[in-house]
Design brief:
The protein folds into 2 domains: 215 residues, no CATH class; 140 residues, Rossmann fold, CATH 3.40.50. Helices cover 41% and strands 12% of the residues. It has 497 residues and is an alpha/beta fold. The strands form 3 sheets. A 7-stranded mixed β-sheet has the order 5-4-3-6-7-8-14, sandwiched between helices. It has a 5-stranded parallel β-sheet with strand order 11-10-9-12-13, with helices on both faces. The chain contains 20 helices and 14 strands. The longest helix has 18 residues.
Protein backbone atom coordinates (compact mmCIF):
# COMPACT_ATOMS: atom_id res chain seq x y z
CA UNK A 1 0.00 0.00 0.00
CA UNK A 2 1.24 3.48 -0.87
CA UNK A 3 1.35 5.90 2.05
CA UNK A 4 1.02 9.66 2.14
CA UNK A 5 -0.39 10.14 -1.38
CA UNK A 6 -3.16 8.58 -3.37
CA UNK A 7 -2.24 6.06 -6.01
CA UNK A 8 -5.44 6.50 -8.06
CA UNK A 9 -6.93 3.09 -7.38
CA UNK A 10 -8.96 2.27 -10.47
CA UNK A 11 -8.92 -0.33 -13.23
CA UNK A 12 -10.60 -0.50 -16.64
CA UNK A 13 -13.64 -2.15 -15.03
CA UNK A 14 -14.03 0.37 -12.26
CA UNK A 15 -17.06 2.65 -12.46
CA UNK A 16 -15.81 5.74 -10.69
CA UNK A 17 -12.76 7.49 -9.36
CA UNK A 18 -12.90 7.19 -5.58
CA UNK A 19 -10.35 9.51 -3.90
CA UNK A 20 -8.89 8.01 -0.76
CA UNK A 21 -8.30 11.31 0.98
CA UNK A 22 -8.88 15.04 0.82
CA UNK A 23 -5.60 15.72 -0.99
CA UNK A 24 -6.67 13.43 -3.79
CA UNK A 25 -10.00 15.24 -4.10
CA UNK A 26 -8.16 18.55 -4.27
CA UNK A 27 -5.83 17.21 -6.95
CA UNK A 28 -8.73 15.98 -9.06
CA UNK A 29 -10.59 19.27 -8.61
CA UNK A 30 -7.61 21.24 -9.91
CA UNK A 31 -7.80 19.20 -13.10
CA UNK A 32 -11.53 19.69 -13.59
CA UNK A 33 -12.42 16.12 -12.62
CA UNK A 34 -14.87 15.21 -9.93
CA UNK A 35 -14.66 12.14 -7.71
CA UNK A 36 -17.57 10.71 -9.67
CA UNK A 37 -16.00 11.02 -13.09
CA UNK A 38 -16.47 7.79 -14.95
CA UNK A 39 -13.29 5.88 -15.68
CA UNK A 40 -14.74 4.81 -19.01
CA UNK A 41 -15.39 8.40 -20.03
CA UNK A 42 -11.91 9.44 -18.89
CA UNK A 43 -10.33 6.67 -20.93
CA UNK A 44 -12.54 7.45 -23.92
CA UNK A 45 -11.47 11.08 -23.76
CA UNK A 46 -7.87 9.96 -23.99
CA UNK A 47 -8.71 7.70 -26.96
CA UNK A 48 -10.17 10.64 -28.83
CA UNK A 49 -7.19 12.93 -28.48
CA UNK A 50 -6.74 15.33 -31.34
CA UNK A 51 -3.88 17.55 -32.44
CA UNK A 52 -4.41 21.26 -32.02
CA UNK A 53 -4.11 23.39 -35.13
CA UNK A 54 -2.05 25.78 -33.06
CA UNK A 55 0.71 23.27 -32.39
CA UNK A 56 3.98 23.49 -34.27
CA UNK A 57 6.44 20.62 -34.09
CA UNK A 58 10.10 20.51 -34.89
CA UNK A 59 9.29 17.16 -36.56
CA UNK A 60 6.34 16.11 -38.74
CA UNK A 61 3.03 16.22 -36.88
CA UNK A 62 1.71 13.11 -35.20
CA UNK A 63 -0.95 11.62 -37.44
CA UNK A 64 -4.07 10.40 -35.62
CA UNK A 65 -4.31 7.43 -37.99
CA UNK A 66 -1.00 6.15 -36.71
CA UNK A 67 -2.47 5.94 -33.24
CA UNK A 68 -5.41 3.74 -34.08
CA UNK A 69 -5.29 0.35 -32.46
CA UNK A 70 -2.80 1.42 -29.80
CA UNK A 71 -3.89 -0.17 -26.56
CA UNK A 72 -4.14 1.88 -23.41
CA UNK A 73 -2.08 0.51 -20.57
CA UNK A 74 -3.77 -0.54 -17.36
CA UNK A 75 -3.24 2.16 -14.76
CA UNK A 76 -0.27 1.61 -12.50
CA UNK A 77 1.13 -0.94 -14.96
CA UNK A 78 3.74 0.90 -17.05
CA UNK A 79 4.11 0.24 -20.77
CA UNK A 80 6.27 -2.80 -21.36
CA UNK A 81 9.90 -1.94 -21.86
CA UNK A 82 11.73 -3.70 -24.66
CA UNK A 83 13.88 -6.64 -23.52
CA UNK A 84 17.42 -6.43 -24.84
CA UNK A 85 19.99 -9.23 -25.05
CA UNK A 86 21.30 -9.77 -21.55
CA UNK A 87 17.89 -9.30 -19.95
CA UNK A 88 17.97 -5.55 -19.26
CA UNK A 89 15.07 -3.38 -20.39
CA UNK A 90 15.05 -0.59 -22.94
CA UNK A 91 12.82 2.28 -21.87
CA UNK A 92 11.49 5.32 -23.70
CA UNK A 93 11.87 8.57 -21.75
CA UNK A 94 10.08 11.83 -22.45
CA UNK A 95 11.79 14.82 -20.85
CA UNK A 96 9.56 17.81 -20.16
CA UNK A 97 10.77 21.10 -18.62
CA UNK A 98 13.91 20.97 -16.51
CA UNK A 99 16.04 23.50 -14.64
CA UNK A 100 17.79 26.51 -16.15
CA UNK A 101 20.93 24.57 -16.99
CA UNK A 102 22.14 21.77 -19.31
CA UNK A 103 21.29 19.14 -16.66
CA UNK A 104 18.56 17.46 -18.75
CA UNK A 105 20.87 17.40 -21.78
CA UNK A 106 23.56 15.52 -19.79
CA UNK A 107 20.91 13.20 -18.37
CA UNK A 108 19.60 12.39 -21.84
CA UNK A 109 23.08 11.62 -23.18
CA UNK A 110 23.68 9.15 -20.35
CA UNK A 111 20.30 7.47 -20.86
CA UNK A 112 21.02 7.10 -24.58
CA UNK A 113 24.48 5.70 -23.84
CA UNK A 114 22.74 3.08 -21.71
CA UNK A 115 20.58 2.09 -24.69
CA UNK A 116 17.34 3.93 -23.94
CA UNK A 117 15.35 6.21 -26.23
CA UNK A 118 14.90 9.86 -25.22
CA UNK A 119 12.61 12.54 -26.62
CA UNK A 120 12.28 16.11 -25.38
CA UNK A 121 9.47 18.65 -25.29
CA UNK A 122 10.52 22.30 -25.33
CA UNK A 123 8.13 24.99 -24.15
CA UNK A 124 10.24 28.09 -24.68
CA UNK A 125 13.46 29.27 -26.28
CA UNK A 126 15.46 28.68 -23.10
CA UNK A 127 14.45 25.00 -23.17
CA UNK A 128 15.50 24.80 -26.82
CA UNK A 129 18.85 26.51 -26.22
CA UNK A 130 19.84 24.08 -23.50
CA UNK A 131 18.71 21.04 -25.47
CA UNK A 132 20.48 21.24 -28.83
CA UNK A 133 19.96 17.53 -29.44
CA UNK A 134 17.80 15.31 -31.61
CA UNK A 135 14.19 14.20 -31.13
CA UNK A 136 12.82 17.47 -29.82
CA UNK A 137 9.26 18.72 -30.11
CA UNK A 138 8.30 22.35 -29.64
CA UNK A 139 4.93 23.07 -28.12
CA UNK A 140 3.44 26.36 -29.24
CA UNK A 141 -0.20 25.70 -28.56
CA UNK A 142 -2.65 26.66 -25.86
CA UNK A 143 -2.05 25.46 -22.31
CA UNK A 144 -5.48 23.81 -22.13
CA UNK A 145 -4.58 21.62 -25.17
CA UNK A 146 -1.19 20.55 -23.83
CA UNK A 147 -2.28 17.42 -21.97
CA UNK A 148 -3.93 15.88 -25.01
CA UNK A 149 -0.97 16.82 -27.24
CA UNK A 150 1.52 15.17 -24.88
CA UNK A 151 -0.65 12.05 -24.67
CA UNK A 152 -0.41 11.71 -28.43
CA UNK A 153 3.38 11.82 -28.24
CA UNK A 154 3.25 9.12 -25.56
CA UNK A 155 1.35 6.92 -27.97
CA UNK A 156 3.46 7.70 -31.01
CA UNK A 157 6.75 6.89 -29.25
CA UNK A 158 5.40 4.22 -26.86
CA UNK A 159 6.72 6.30 -23.96
CA UNK A 160 7.29 4.38 -20.74
CA UNK A 161 8.56 7.22 -18.52
CA UNK A 162 8.36 11.00 -18.31
CA UNK A 163 10.89 13.15 -16.45
CA UNK A 164 10.34 16.70 -15.25
CA UNK A 165 11.40 19.32 -12.72
CA UNK A 166 8.61 20.56 -10.45
CA UNK A 167 5.32 18.70 -10.62
CA UNK A 168 3.15 21.80 -10.08
CA UNK A 169 4.33 23.84 -13.05
CA UNK A 170 1.38 24.61 -15.36
CA UNK A 171 3.08 22.81 -18.27
CA UNK A 172 3.37 19.65 -16.14
CA UNK A 173 0.09 19.31 -14.28
CA UNK A 174 -1.99 17.60 -16.95
CA UNK A 175 0.91 15.38 -17.96
CA UNK A 176 1.36 14.15 -14.38
CA UNK A 177 -2.34 13.39 -13.93
CA UNK A 178 -2.90 11.71 -17.29
CA UNK A 179 0.25 9.61 -16.98
CA UNK A 180 -1.45 7.83 -14.09
CA UNK A 181 -4.35 6.92 -16.38
CA UNK A 182 -2.02 5.30 -18.87
CA UNK A 183 0.44 3.75 -16.45
CA UNK A 184 3.34 5.91 -17.58
CA UNK A 185 5.87 6.43 -14.81
CA UNK A 186 6.52 10.01 -13.74
CA UNK A 187 9.90 10.98 -12.28
CA UNK A 188 10.09 14.38 -10.61
CA UNK A 189 13.27 16.29 -9.82
CA UNK A 190 13.34 19.08 -7.24
CA UNK A 191 15.80 20.90 -5.06
CA UNK A 192 17.01 18.73 -2.20
CA UNK A 193 15.05 18.20 1.00
CA UNK A 194 18.46 18.26 2.65
CA UNK A 195 20.97 20.80 1.33
CA UNK A 196 23.57 21.37 0.11
CA UNK A 197 24.94 18.52 -2.05
CA UNK A 198 21.58 16.74 -2.36
CA UNK A 199 18.79 16.93 -4.94
CA UNK A 200 15.39 15.25 -4.88
CA UNK A 201 14.18 12.55 -7.27
CA UNK A 202 10.78 10.98 -6.60
CA UNK A 203 8.20 9.09 -8.59
CA UNK A 204 4.73 10.60 -9.06
CA UNK A 205 5.28 13.79 -7.05
CA UNK A 206 7.31 15.83 -4.56
CA UNK A 207 6.65 17.98 -1.50
CA UNK A 208 2.91 17.91 -0.81
CA UNK A 209 2.46 15.17 -3.43
CA UNK A 210 5.31 12.99 -2.22
CA UNK A 211 4.73 9.26 -1.67
CA UNK A 212 6.63 9.54 1.61
CA UNK A 213 4.28 8.49 4.43
CA UNK A 214 3.07 10.93 7.05
CA UNK A 215 3.40 8.35 9.79
CA UNK A 216 6.21 8.65 12.35
CA UNK A 217 5.94 4.94 13.18
CA UNK A 218 6.63 4.07 9.55
CA UNK A 219 9.86 6.09 9.67
CA UNK A 220 10.82 4.44 12.94
CA UNK A 221 10.37 1.02 11.36
CA UNK A 222 12.02 1.91 8.06
CA UNK A 223 14.92 3.75 9.65
CA UNK A 224 15.61 0.91 12.05
CA UNK A 225 16.88 -1.19 9.13
CA UNK A 226 19.02 1.51 7.52
CA UNK A 227 22.57 2.59 8.04
CA UNK A 228 23.22 6.23 8.78
CA UNK A 229 22.95 8.37 5.67
CA UNK A 230 26.27 8.66 3.84
CA UNK A 231 28.24 11.85 3.90
CA UNK A 232 27.66 13.45 0.49
CA UNK A 233 30.53 14.04 -1.86
CA UNK A 234 31.22 17.76 -1.80
CA UNK A 235 31.71 19.79 -4.97
CA UNK A 236 32.20 23.37 -6.01
CA UNK A 237 28.90 25.07 -6.77
CA UNK A 238 29.46 28.84 -6.91
CA UNK A 239 26.33 30.96 -7.08
CA UNK A 240 27.85 32.76 -10.07
CA UNK A 241 27.53 29.58 -12.12
CA UNK A 242 23.86 29.21 -11.28
CA UNK A 243 23.31 32.88 -12.08
CA UNK A 244 25.11 32.49 -15.42
CA UNK A 245 22.83 29.61 -16.46
CA UNK A 246 19.74 31.50 -15.32
CA UNK A 247 20.68 34.62 -17.27
CA UNK A 248 21.54 32.59 -20.38
CA UNK A 249 18.22 30.73 -20.20
CA UNK A 250 16.21 33.93 -19.94
CA UNK A 251 18.25 35.78 -22.56
CA UNK A 252 17.34 33.00 -24.95
CA UNK A 253 13.76 33.52 -23.80
CA UNK A 254 13.83 37.00 -25.32
CA UNK A 255 12.78 35.31 -28.55
CA UNK A 256 9.72 33.72 -26.94
CA UNK A 257 7.28 36.34 -28.29
CA UNK A 258 8.32 35.28 -31.79
CA UNK A 259 8.98 31.55 -31.40
CA UNK A 260 6.72 30.63 -28.45
CA UNK A 261 4.12 33.41 -28.33
CA UNK A 262 1.71 31.56 -26.03
CA UNK A 263 4.29 30.57 -23.41
CA UNK A 264 3.85 32.08 -19.98
CA UNK A 265 6.46 31.62 -17.21
CA UNK A 266 5.39 29.61 -14.17
CA UNK A 267 6.88 32.23 -11.89
CA UNK A 268 7.72 35.93 -12.06
CA UNK A 269 8.97 37.38 -15.35
CA UNK A 270 12.76 37.45 -15.63
CA UNK A 271 12.85 41.21 -16.25
CA UNK A 272 11.12 41.86 -12.91
CA UNK A 273 13.36 39.33 -11.20
CA UNK A 274 16.61 40.87 -12.45
CA UNK A 275 15.40 44.38 -11.72
CA UNK A 276 14.79 43.32 -8.14
CA UNK A 277 18.22 41.74 -7.79
CA UNK A 278 19.83 44.81 -9.32
CA UNK A 279 18.39 46.84 -6.45
CA UNK A 280 18.94 44.41 -3.56
CA UNK A 281 22.31 42.83 -4.26
CA UNK A 282 24.41 46.05 -4.25
CA UNK A 283 23.11 46.71 -0.72
CA UNK A 284 24.03 43.28 0.68
CA UNK A 285 27.45 44.35 1.92
CA UNK A 286 25.83 47.09 3.99
CA UNK A 287 23.07 44.70 5.14
CA UNK A 288 25.66 42.21 6.40
CA UNK A 289 27.42 44.83 8.54
CA UNK A 290 24.11 46.09 9.92
CA UNK A 291 22.76 42.60 10.59
CA UNK A 292 25.94 41.49 12.34
CA UNK A 293 25.38 44.31 14.85
CA UNK A 294 21.72 43.35 15.30
CA UNK A 295 22.65 39.72 15.94
CA UNK A 296 25.35 40.71 18.45
CA UNK A 297 22.84 42.91 20.29
CA UNK A 298 20.29 40.09 20.31
CA UNK A 299 22.73 37.53 21.65
CA UNK A 300 24.12 39.96 24.18
CA UNK A 301 20.68 40.82 25.54
CA UNK A 302 20.04 37.28 26.74
CA UNK A 303 16.42 37.60 25.64
CA UNK A 304 14.74 34.43 24.36
CA UNK A 305 13.91 34.62 20.69
CA UNK A 306 11.99 32.75 17.98
CA UNK A 307 12.88 32.48 14.29
CA UNK A 308 10.72 33.09 11.23
CA UNK A 309 12.83 32.46 8.08
CA UNK A 310 10.95 33.77 5.05
CA UNK A 311 10.28 31.79 1.90
CA UNK A 312 10.02 33.10 -1.65
CA UNK A 313 6.61 34.30 -2.80
CA UNK A 314 7.35 32.71 -6.17
CA UNK A 315 8.14 29.30 -4.70
CA UNK A 316 5.73 26.45 -5.50
CA UNK A 317 5.86 25.61 -1.79
CA UNK A 318 3.91 28.82 -1.15
CA UNK A 319 1.88 29.10 -4.36
CA UNK A 320 0.73 25.47 -4.58
CA UNK A 321 1.50 23.73 -1.29
CA UNK A 322 0.20 26.23 1.26
CA UNK A 323 -3.00 28.08 2.10
CA UNK A 324 -1.22 31.44 1.99
CA UNK A 325 -1.16 33.73 -1.02
CA UNK A 326 2.21 35.19 -0.07
CA UNK A 327 4.66 35.69 2.78
CA UNK A 328 3.05 38.98 3.77
CA UNK A 329 0.07 36.98 5.04
CA UNK A 330 2.42 34.68 6.94
CA UNK A 331 4.25 37.58 8.60
CA UNK A 332 1.00 39.18 9.71
CA UNK A 333 -0.36 35.91 11.12
CA UNK A 334 2.84 35.15 13.03
CA UNK A 335 3.35 38.66 14.42
CA UNK A 336 -0.24 38.85 15.64
CA UNK A 337 0.02 35.49 17.39
CA UNK A 338 3.41 36.45 18.83
CA UNK A 339 1.96 39.67 20.26
CA UNK A 340 -0.93 37.85 21.93
CA UNK A 341 0.76 34.70 23.18
CA UNK A 342 4.58 34.89 23.37
CA UNK A 343 6.36 35.63 26.65
CA UNK A 344 6.63 39.38 27.14
CA UNK A 345 10.42 39.43 27.14
CA UNK A 346 10.78 37.36 23.99
CA UNK A 347 11.91 38.57 20.56
CA UNK A 348 10.84 37.50 17.08
CA UNK A 349 13.61 37.32 14.47
CA UNK A 350 12.36 37.57 10.89
CA UNK A 351 15.06 36.66 8.40
CA UNK A 352 14.64 37.23 4.68
CA UNK A 353 15.36 34.51 2.12
CA UNK A 354 18.89 34.69 0.63
CA UNK A 355 17.46 34.67 -2.92
CA UNK A 356 14.71 37.20 -2.32
CA UNK A 357 14.43 39.65 -5.21
CA UNK A 358 13.67 42.69 -3.07
CA UNK A 359 10.29 43.31 -4.73
CA UNK A 360 8.40 43.34 -1.42
CA UNK A 361 9.01 46.01 1.21
CA UNK A 362 9.23 43.65 4.16
CA UNK A 363 10.83 46.23 6.50
CA UNK A 364 7.96 48.64 5.83
CA UNK A 365 5.35 45.94 6.41
CA UNK A 366 7.01 44.85 9.66
CA UNK A 367 7.21 48.43 10.98
CA UNK A 368 3.51 48.86 10.27
CA UNK A 369 2.62 45.62 12.07
CA UNK A 370 4.91 46.51 14.99
CA UNK A 371 2.79 49.58 15.61
CA UNK A 372 -0.49 47.76 15.08
CA UNK A 373 0.32 44.96 17.54
CA UNK A 374 2.38 47.00 20.03
CA UNK A 375 5.62 45.16 19.25
CA UNK A 376 8.05 48.07 19.03
CA UNK A 377 11.50 46.84 20.07
CA UNK A 378 10.55 43.15 20.00
CA UNK A 379 11.06 42.42 16.30
CA UNK A 380 14.50 41.88 14.75
CA UNK A 381 14.56 41.94 10.94
CA UNK A 382 17.57 40.47 9.08
CA UNK A 383 18.50 40.42 5.41
CA UNK A 384 21.50 38.20 6.14
CA UNK A 385 23.08 36.15 8.90
CA UNK A 386 23.99 32.55 9.67
CA UNK A 387 20.69 30.72 10.14
CA UNK A 388 22.29 27.62 11.66
CA UNK A 389 24.02 29.69 14.34
CA UNK A 390 20.77 31.47 15.15
CA UNK A 391 18.79 28.23 15.37
CA UNK A 392 21.17 26.73 17.91
CA UNK A 393 20.01 29.21 20.55
CA UNK A 394 16.46 29.90 19.36
CA UNK A 395 13.47 28.98 21.53
CA UNK A 396 11.63 27.85 18.43
CA UNK A 397 11.21 28.28 14.69
CA UNK A 398 8.09 28.87 12.62
CA UNK A 399 7.92 27.93 8.95
CA UNK A 400 5.25 27.28 6.36
CA UNK A 401 6.94 24.33 4.67
CA UNK A 402 10.54 25.37 4.03
CA UNK A 403 13.42 22.90 4.09
CA UNK A 404 14.89 25.14 6.78
CA UNK A 405 12.61 23.08 9.02
CA UNK A 406 14.99 20.16 8.54
CA UNK A 407 17.84 22.39 9.68
CA UNK A 408 15.89 23.40 12.78
CA UNK A 409 15.12 19.78 13.61
CA UNK A 410 18.77 18.86 13.15
CA UNK A 411 19.65 21.39 15.88
CA UNK A 412 16.79 20.16 18.09
CA UNK A 413 15.01 23.49 17.81
CA UNK A 414 11.24 23.31 18.52
CA UNK A 415 9.51 23.75 15.17
CA UNK A 416 5.99 24.72 14.11
CA UNK A 417 4.71 24.24 10.54
CA UNK A 418 1.99 26.46 9.12
CA UNK A 419 1.86 24.15 6.11
CA UNK A 420 2.28 20.40 5.70
CA UNK A 421 5.84 19.55 4.61
CA UNK A 422 7.12 15.98 4.68
CA UNK A 423 8.78 16.55 8.07
CA UNK A 424 5.56 17.70 9.78
CA UNK A 425 5.26 14.58 11.90
CA UNK A 426 4.20 14.02 15.52
CA UNK A 427 7.40 13.75 17.50
CA UNK A 428 9.28 16.10 15.17
CA UNK A 429 7.15 19.25 14.95
CA UNK A 430 4.68 20.82 17.35
CA UNK A 431 1.21 19.51 16.57
CA UNK A 432 -0.82 22.07 18.54
CA UNK A 433 -1.82 25.58 17.50
CA UNK A 434 0.51 28.47 16.72
CA UNK A 435 -0.90 30.32 19.75
CA UNK A 436 0.22 27.48 22.04
CA UNK A 437 3.58 26.97 20.35
CA UNK A 438 5.16 30.06 21.92
CA UNK A 439 4.96 28.55 25.42
CA UNK A 440 4.51 24.82 24.79
CA UNK A 441 6.88 24.03 21.92
CA UNK A 442 8.95 20.89 22.50
CA UNK A 443 12.27 19.72 21.14
CA UNK A 444 12.06 17.07 18.42
CA UNK A 445 12.68 13.39 19.11
CA UNK A 446 16.34 12.92 18.18
CA UNK A 447 15.99 9.24 17.34
CA UNK A 448 12.93 9.82 15.18
CA UNK A 449 14.68 12.60 13.28
CA UNK A 450 17.68 10.37 12.64
CA UNK A 451 15.38 7.65 11.25
CA UNK A 452 13.49 10.24 9.20
CA UNK A 453 16.62 11.80 7.75
CA UNK A 454 18.25 8.46 6.96
CA UNK A 455 15.10 7.19 5.25
CA UNK A 456 14.57 10.31 3.15
CA UNK A 457 18.19 10.43 2.01
CA UNK A 458 18.33 6.72 1.21
CA UNK A 459 15.07 6.78 -0.78
CA UNK A 460 14.54 10.13 -2.53
CA UNK A 461 17.81 12.10 -2.34
CA UNK A 462 20.68 12.06 -4.81
CA UNK A 463 24.15 13.38 -4.17
CA UNK A 464 24.69 16.10 -6.75
CA UNK A 465 23.47 19.42 -8.09
CA UNK A 466 21.78 21.00 -11.09
CA UNK A 467 24.09 23.86 -12.03
CA UNK A 468 27.80 23.12 -11.64
CA UNK A 469 29.54 20.56 -13.85
CA UNK A 470 30.71 18.26 -11.00
CA UNK A 471 27.28 18.49 -9.34
CA UNK A 472 25.50 17.57 -12.58
CA UNK A 473 27.85 14.65 -13.19
CA UNK A 474 27.10 13.20 -9.76
CA UNK A 475 23.35 13.71 -10.11
CA UNK A 476 23.23 12.14 -13.59
CA UNK A 477 25.08 9.01 -12.48
CA UNK A 478 22.77 8.54 -9.52
CA UNK A 479 19.58 9.43 -11.39
CA UNK A 480 19.97 7.07 -14.35
CA UNK A 481 20.08 4.04 -12.05
CA UNK A 482 16.85 5.05 -10.32
CA UNK A 483 15.06 6.13 -13.51
CA UNK A 484 15.63 2.74 -15.11
CA UNK A 485 14.84 0.58 -12.09
CA UNK A 486 11.52 -1.23 -11.98
CA UNK A 487 10.95 0.18 -8.52
CA UNK A 488 12.36 3.31 -6.99
CA UNK A 489 14.14 3.03 -3.63
CA UNK A 490 11.07 4.52 -1.94
CA UNK A 491 8.67 2.13 -3.67
CA UNK A 492 10.83 -0.78 -2.56
CA UNK A 493 10.85 0.54 0.99
CA UNK A 494 7.05 1.00 0.97
CA UNK A 495 6.65 -2.62 -0.08
CA UNK A 496 8.88 -3.83 2.74
CA UNK A 497 7.47 -1.69 5.54
Amino acid sequence: MLHGRLALPFTASASALMPADARAQESLGEQGLSPTTSVASAIEKLRQLKMSDDVVLTRPPVQPDALRGVELHTPRQPPSAHIRPGGDRRRVFMLLQGVCSPFFLHLAKKLKQDGHEVIKVNFNSGDSFYWRHDKAYAYRGKLEDLGDWIAELWRKHHVTDQVLFGDRRPVHRDAVLKAEYLGIRTHVFEEGYFRPYWVTLEREGVNGHSLLPRDPDWFREAGRHLEDAPTPQRFQAPFSERARHDITYHLAGATNPLLFPRYRPHSIHAVQEYAGYATRLPLMRWYKRRDAKRIDQLMGSGAPYYMLPLQLNTDAQIRHHSRFANMQEVIQRVMKSFALNAPRGARLVIKNHPLDMGLVDYPGLIRSLERRYDLIGRIVYLESGNLEKLLQQAKGMITVNSTTGNVALQYRCPTFCMGDPIFNLPGLTFQGSLHDFWTQGQRPDTTLFRHFRNTVIHTVQLNGGFYSKPGMQLAVLGATKILCAERSPLESMLNRC
